[in-house]
Amino acid sequence: MFSFIAQRVFQSVLVMLTVALIAFTMFRYVGDPVAAMVGQDTTTAQRLELREQLGLNDSIFVQYGRFVTQAAQGDFGMSYRHRRPVSALLAERLPATLELSFVSAVMALVLGIPMGIYTALRRNILSKSFMAVSLAGISLPTFLIGILLILVFSVQLRWLPSFGRGEVVNLGGWSTGFLTKSGLAALILPAITLALFQMTLIMRLVRAEMLEVLRADFIKFARARGLPERLINFRHALKNTLVPVITITGLQLGSIIAFAIITETVFQWPGMGLLFIQSIAVVDIPVMAAYLLLIALVFVIINLIVDLLYFAVDPRLRVQR
Amino acid sequence: KTFRFAYQGDATSLDPMALNETFTLGFQNNIYEPLVSYDGDLKLVPALATEWSNPEPTKWVFKLRKGVTFHDGSPFTADDVIFSWKRSQTPGSDMKAYGAKASDIKKVDDFTIEVTTPTPNPILPREWVYLFIMSKAWSEKNNAVEATNVKGGQVNYANLNANGTGPYMVTERQPDIRTVMKKFDKYWGKAEMKGNADDVIFQPITQEATRVAALISGEMDVVMPVPVQDWQRLEDAKGVKPLTAPEARAIFIGMDQSRDELLFSNIKGKNPFKDVRVRQAVVLAVDTKAINEKIMRGAAKPLGSLVATAINGYADSYGAPIAPDVNKSKALLKEAGYPDGFEVTLDCPNDRYVNDEKVCQAVASMLARVGIKINLLAQTKGKYFGKVLPQAGNQTSMYLLGWTPSSIDAHNALLNLASCRDPKTSTGQFNLGGYCNPKVDELTAKVGTETDQVKRNAMIKEAFEIVRADWGYLPLHQQPMSWGVKDNIKVIQRADDVMDLRNVVLP
Amino acid sequence: MMNRVATFFARTADSDLWHSFKQSPGAVIAAVVTLIIVLAALFAPLISPHNPFDLASLSIMDANTPPAWSADGNSSFLLGTDDQGRDILSAVIYGTRVSLFVGLASVAFSVILGVSLGLISGYAGGRVDSFIMRIADVQLSFPAILVALLIDGVARGMLPRDMHDKVALYVLVFAIGISGWVQYARTVRGATMVERNKEYVQAARLIGIGPFTILRRHILPNILGPVMVIATIHLAVAVITEATLSFLGVGLPPTSPSLGTLIRIGNSYLFSGMWWISIFPSIALVALVLAVNLLGDWLRDALNPKLR
Amino acid sequence: MSLLNVEHMRIEFASRRGTLVAIDDLKLTLEKGEILGVVGESGAGKSTVGNAIIGLLERPGKLTGGEISLSGERIEAYGPAKMRELRGRRISMIFQDPLTSLDPLQTVESQLAETMQVHLGISHAEACKRAITALEQVGIPDPALRVKHYPHQFSGGMRQRVVIALALCCEPEVIIADEPTTALDVSIQAQILDLLRKLCKEKDVGMIIITHDMGVIAEITDRVAVLYRGKLVEEGPTQKILGDPDHAYTRSLISAVPRPDVKLRRFPTVNYIEAAKAPTKAIDIATHWLGERRDFGTRQAGPLVETRGLGMQFSLKSALLKRNRRTLDAVKQFNVSIAEGEVFGLVGESGSGKSTVARLIAGLYTPTSGSVHFNGTDLTKLSEKELNPFRRQIQMVFQDPFSSLNPRMRVLDIIAEPIRFHKLTDSETQTRAVVHDLLDVVGLGTAAARKFPHEFSGGQRQRICIARALATRPRFLICDEPTSALDVSIQAQILNLLKDLQETLGLTMLFISHDLPVIRQMCDRVGVMRYGELLEVADTETLFTSPQHEYSKHLLGLMPQLGGMSRAGLDVITADAQA
Ligand SMILES: Nc1ncnc2c1ncn2[C@@H]1O[C@H](COP(=O)(O)OP(=O)(O)OP(=O)(O)O)[C@@H](O)[C@H]1O
Ligand SMILES: Nc1ncnc2c1ncn2[C@@H]1O[C@H](COP(=O)(O)OP(=O)(O)OP(=O)(O)O)[C@@H](O)[C@H]1O
Ligand SMILES: [Mg+2]
Ligand SMILES: [Mg+2]
Q1: Are residues A158 and A254 part of one domain?
Q2: Is the same domain home to A51 and A163?
Q3: Which of B377, C75, D148, D174 is most buried (most C-beta within 10 Å)?
């Protein structure tokens, strides 16, 4: 167990270093940060000096090395645009993204898993319509869904806000939208947008796995023992379905945070994804680097959790390690 | 009463010396004040200075307003002005160019200062409308005596906090998310101020569709800008309307006429744009009126020059739109030796100006009709500027650019856009195509020091007429400002696209 | 040759796959829609009324014409025009062509890369296997859309600037393709490890046949089933990814628009009353993706012996 | 009134290619405490009968006629709910594979308890208590502890016991066991059969045991029903069926069973089965391509195949730290020499390393120690290229005819592949001719060349495998359990074919099996393996009559005796001592 975790941590560090290197190779080409940092009256000489000061003229590897050494000490530098430490900036934006992702993930799981089970067990109209909805869910691009929702619920019906987080309450550095009415209202549309795709994915996955498990011999034997369907479906089939579902779902939940970029852009949701997109526009290299690293970290952590969950769910793994 | 408004981006910082950018400065102008300011028509009006004079060519005297207090309650004096000027010269400052307009400021008494300029400067008050005055005591107390600097490694207090003399004070600042302001009770100009909002909430909304939706759904009182194509929708929607006027920004296309061979073209060994006939052909091929009508919904103002009508020194003689003439354009190309035209890449930002990319596309299809095949390279402004600006080596053959002289004076345009490029004197910095005519340079230098306004305007006119005769640029239009406003709110849309809360009247 | 074709058709007509296809109305409709879209895309220059890429043929004066059936419509622009005077119908047809090309090419790229690496990984095992799988892990810790964003950024930067437009398409294909290979590699690796131990592979090894021939001739044909299924569903994902990238503005330029680019452009007309600029490309995109997904669904069920 | 009575049972499987009548007019009876065997070849409909009785026929299958009654009560028309009450409570079922019959994620206790709670309506605590007793009954040591374990913590034999405990825990009246020991080793099989018989007799339960293994039938059944293509051909007491069958099919089925007691020259031809009719075409080895062994090179003195200190170690778990690594010695110090023309047999339980030895000799594995010598050359020292001529001389026939043919290749290409690869013929025309001849030799006929493997039955596929192995004109043929996946009658044909080929072509053979009777019929000399070690090597008859090693004795003791089988008309070479 310990060596397993140690191995994972080592692997994760490698992943992060690679991500950082790739990011730095890329930054050379995303544009000139200085153009966005100064006004039109700033002379070329001053601009060149600023470049020099920021170390933008150093080779990629020097910049990369500098970034990694500083990052190792918890210092991600200053945002070019905001002129504040990137870590503070991300910390400020993290709650918004996490709350949105969390609600979406819960929605995706709470709706996706039962729908998957239902469609696997029944072949009726409801089940067929779930399947149809799921097809639509994976066929509609996220950005289209978001725009459509705004058009219908904000502009036409005026039920829900079209952008932002509403009022937030600050709890010891964590700004939450869960505690106010406007905060909750603002959460609905973006969360649906983000959840829809993942939900259908999870539903289809659960369905496929469940169908597979239902054909296993031990299910046949359970029938031969005269167990009622309910017991067979939920105690035996569902639990066995969970093992493969956990892996994919884990990764999917990770990509919820990544896909939040699009949702946050559409809904002006003040999270990290929006920050990232805005940073790309103004070539705010330190923010971009830190964001990419953070996402990689989230994935690494999710992977670790998934692996640990395996131990919880599957007794076959417990004894071996 | 609460006023809510949205813009496509946020003010970069609250530090008035952090970034010389119109929106940021215009936003800060509600909190901080300069010596001399603009009114709703961009006319100079007294702010923290009540009187100013130019007793000698290189000397200006400003009389300062008495009884002004900063938001923290401390009084305003000449020391604050001198401190602010010095602060604008600190390493992190982006206002160095403005600060450098003075070589020294002497305090005559607590409410009089004497400014010495390195060269005669007839428009100093104008050039300083965005040099905001900060409190010396406050800055020293909060360790913010230097401008916010990316390199410092330390967070500058002034970056997220403000202490100005303006009508509104910041009560909450979450960059990129929202900024909340409250009316300043002890504002010196309270009596005359029309604006009646008690609280102001500002939120940036990046996506156009979301921004418009926020207005229509009633979440916002004013949003800026709205896409011109959505005006009809705003007209139709209840309770909101579009508000528009030509902005002081001129949009034009430049051509690389300095290199011997274009960087991005199929013509090798020579530069077609060096031939005045080719440049004329390009200009004549483009129908600015059609672009205005179809792409800008008639909201722009076709223009024949690099400065807009609102700019000091503008004259119709060089600013009237140029009529297209496709046949002549073709003939000129043939004459110049390009009967089948040629290919060239047009660099274009896609998130900087109103419908910038669409304008470029339209220009491309118009040029295609005379045989010039345009490869359109539309990129985000970060990439675009990273490619075309001098520090990247002006890597462009043809580009679309917009320009508002920060001083609202034509000299700024002459200096930056029409003067020969010279890195030493920093002239022609935005003359990305390297247009060069020594006669224009000569005139520009004279305009810079001429204090007689009539003579000065005559020289401006002469210089721009030369640029036009050289077909040095393809001017397109003055882009429209385009705001979406609730019907019951009165705002003044200034030609520099700045939201001045002093002019916002709620019902 | 003729004979072969004939037997192929005979076998197809008799196969379970064909039978289950005929039995499934959803699959048939999806196939017909896909076929129509593919044909339209293939023969775009022949069937589209205008050439939306020919800048010289555009007239800005035709701009903003509504669809032909509405009051101000113009019969030569069936679905109306955009703000440049481009015929929407033609733009959609050409856009579909671009989207399909990007989708198919990037899937092909993923398949080739993923299948080869998966085969090598599964067959060789040991260090080679762990090495390839670690790379896959690294990539998996990064969402596809970000990978595509990164690659796109790097590639655009590294190529000579004036080549952008010409290669944007291929860069996109590469970016989307590279972000998708892992799934194939993992599936193929698993299948290969199963096949590798099957006795027909041992028999081939006994004969003395080299590993690459074994992989190509023996293992590859036997693992193509699951690959086909993933590929179909991946095609839909690739088309959407391209649209999303184009929507974020890092995809294809508006001068050679894909459906995603058209939607992005149209998006700014959503409130303008010029609904046709965004609606028609959206419909085309959704129809294409939906049809492909339906086909993929059907194929997965049909090829899965356990579900029969 | 019998315990279970089946009359006129008819089961159909409808598909788009027509309706298959799987069971036709079947009549069965079962008394209390009686064990009824149902035998028949694969596909005869044995499992279908079992599934139908318990109401678990798979989807297209339908009971279209007849009646099933349990203690006089008609149950075939029961609805799902009533049927569920019946299942597990009054009729239980045991399936073939203990590995997959248990839910891997639930403890044995919870699986036992839930069954009892559902049927007996007892509390959870009570059920848990009884679960321990149930495990005790099937002879699992330390049941109180083991009951908390998960299935994967049990060995195969113990898992099958757990399955039996599950089937018995509600004290049913009838147990249907569908091939309950096929997946198990002989020694475990014997234990399980003992257990089943004991439980049946003690509790007076009626049991139907479905199998194709005559050994199992002889061991425990009281009566036997023989199924052929869904029809009952014969039914009667076990002694009578085995010793003096009436029906021709039964007779041919029984004669095809490899006999442990006598060595036969040839297996009797099973002429009741159509597939057996295709005769092997006699070819003149002297003139035929198969006989031209031009390039075998000079024959060295000594054995043709010899292993010296052969060892193979598998790493089960690789780890950075040495102490965490796990390895398994599958083969240890294996020394054997096989003379040219000899058939050498290798027996041993599952996992004893037989297949590993075969693969090592064939060169599919590189040994961790020792060497393999072929005609005096050390094969382990050769490069891939140098190995090629030897590859041609060593070929192998595998156990599983279903996975040993590439399903995407035509039979022609499968058989021609080695010929083409080694360029053994001068032209493609000749290749085809050779392939056709080979197909004739193995009794499939030339028409088979154009087909794909899935169009053949298991026995036919095994013939294709043999043809492919012959296509390199091998000198040494390794047969790794070539018939263990096949029915007895088909097994007989294949073994006959191998015998014939070995004799006509003068092949040297390594013949691997865990089935002692088969070994006895096929081999000249035999090696007994256990835990990767060769325990004893002896002439076949010596081994069977007087085994030396303790383990060999034990193994022979487990061999089902099939007592009372008739010897009429058999071509006997030797009779064993016990006879
Ligand atoms: N689900 C099914 N669908 C179609 N046909 C089936 C199905 N199950 C069995 N059959 C057919 O019914 C016949 C009897 O099959 P069954 O499984 O009862 O044979 P068996 O005697 O148990 O054989 P084995 O010894 O191989 O287990 C076979 O011909 C088989 O092909
Ligand atoms: N590739 C492998 N990796 C790890 N262990 C292996 C491998 N192949 C075989 N083994 C192990 O080596 C031992 C011997 O296996 P082998 O297949 O030779 O046995 P066998 O006598 O042929 O058994 P069976 O009768 O079941 O075929 C077994 O314990 C098996 O689990
Ligand atoms: Mg069976
Ligand atoms: Mg074996």
Answers
A1: yes
A2: no
A3: B377
Q: pLDDT tens across A149-182, in order?
A: 888 888 778 888 888 887 888 887 788 878 888 8
Does A91 lie in the same domain as A25? no
Among residues A29, A46, A73, the one where a domain terminates is A73
For atom 16 of ligand 1, the residue with the nearest CA is D45
Pick C142's closest partner by Cβ from A147, A215, A299. Answer: A299
Instruction: For ligand 2, say whether the CB of D364 is within 6 Å of any of its atoms.
Output: no
B365 and C85 within 8 Å at the Cβ level: the answer is yes
Min Cα separation A84/chain B (Å): 6
ipTM over 0.90: no
Q: How far apart are CA C62 and CA D496, in angstroms?
A: 87
Rounded Cα distance, D538 and D525, in Å: 6
A298 found inside a domain: yes
Q: Which pair of tokens denotes residue D357? A: 């030895």
Helix (H, G, I), strand (E, B) or coil at B173: strand
The sign of the CA dihedral D289, D290, D292, D296 is positive
Closest CA to B87 of B42, B47, B142, B12: B142
Ligand 2 atom nearest to C197, measured from its CA:
1
Domain that holds residue A154: 86-318
| Neighbour count for residue D66 (Cβ, 10 Å) | 18
Residue A79 located in a structural domain: no
- Cβ-defined contact of A231 to D101 (cutoff 8 Å): no
Residue of A nearest to C259 (CA): A141
At residue C1 the predicted structure's pLDDT band, cuts being 50, 70 and 90, is: very low
The radius of gyration of chain A from alpha carbons, rounded to an integer in Å, stands at: 24
What CATH number does the domain located at D341-558 have? 3.40.50.300
Q: Residues near B167 by Cβ (< 8 Å), separated by ≥ 6?
A: B30, B183, B184, B187, B189, B190, B193, B195, B501, B502
Q: Are residues A121 and A163 in the same domain?
A: yes
**A195-to-A110, A178, A180, A206 alpha-carbon distances in Å:** 11, 17, 22, 16
| Beta strand ranges found along chain A (DSSP E) | 169-171, 174-176
C208 occurs within a structural domain? yes
CA angle at C251 for the pair C250 and C256, rounded to the nearest 5°: 130
* CA distance linking residue B448 with residue B442, whole number of Å: 10
pTM (two decimals): 0.79
Question: How many domains does chain C divide into?
Answer: 1
Residue C37 resides in a domain: no
Write out the two tokens for A194: 């983000």
Residue C177 domain boundaries: 67-303
Q: Which ligand ends up closest to the CA of D42?
A: 1
Residue C97 in any domain: the answer is yes
C131-190 pLDDT tens trace: 888 788 777 666 666 776 667 666 666 665 555 566 677 878 888 888 788 888 888 888
Q: Tell whether C166 is covered by a domain.
A: yes
Averages of pLDDT over each 10 residues, chain B, 507 residues: 89 84 87 89 88 88 90 90 90 82 88 89 86 90 82 76 90 88 89 88 86 87 87 85 88 92 87 91 91 86 89 88 91 90 88 85 88 83 78 85 86 88 80 90 87 87 91 91 90 86 88
For residue B225, cis peptide bond before it (omega within 30 degrees of 0): yes
Distance D13 CA to ligand 1 centre (A): 9
Strands D394-397 and D476-480: parallel
Query: Do D7 and D67 contact (CB within 8 A), yes or no?
Result: yes
Do both A129 and A217 map to the same domain?
A: yes
Neighbour tally for D59: CB within 10 Å: 8
How many residues are present in chain A? Answer: 321
Query: What's the CA gap between C289 and D397, in Å, rounded?
Result: 49
Helices (H), D204-267: 214-220, 238-243, 248-255
Q: Does C205 touch chain D (CB under 8 A)?
A: yes
D184, D189, D354: residue to mutate for ligand 2 pocket, most atoms within 8 A of CB: D354
